[in-house]
Design goal:
The chain is built from 4 helices and 8 strands. It is an alpha/beta fold and 188 residues long. Strands 3, 4, 5, 6, 7 and 8 form a 6-stranded mixed β-sheet that branches. Strand 4 and strand 5 form a beta hairpin.
Amino acid sequence: NYTGIAEKQGINYVLKKTAIMPKTTQKANKKIEIKEISLSSTLINKGRASHTVDQSVDSSLLEFGEELHRLLEALDYENKDISFIKNPLLHRCAYHVLNSSLFKDVKNDQLRHEFAFFDEIHHIHGIIDCLIITDQDIKIIDFKLKNIDDEKYQTQLRTYRDYLKTITALPIHLYLLSAMTGEEKEID
């Protein structure tokens, strides 16, 4: 049971007068008995920043949304070339996003897609669709297929902002962006 310890750690181990040397196949002839382990524990009710998906939503629509998010993550926001996208609906959505005023003059290295975080203070997990990070500010962009008027989305963006405020002093701006229509909405 103990032969791998020394190789993994790269040092000699001595367990109750039994030495295990690196690269040995010797087995320890002593048993380790653990009498008590005391670990402090706190139950954490981990929340989500985004709201849960309504079960009545068509699964093909969810799959399309996931495919669109993967595509938006892989696009070249500087060159804006979408000629490789064969699906007409995905092509239109990519066009609307890339030609949004939010992505005008944006460099690819300013973007962070699918930025995952865990807010230890509020015990909330979240994944931010897109961050545009400059020396002057940070823009949080949440991509939606069409509806950008739901109050839940605004709450979600504010939760993202609250977390980012714990790690940066830069001003943070919040946006919802409809990929289907190109409509943008700034949230305060």
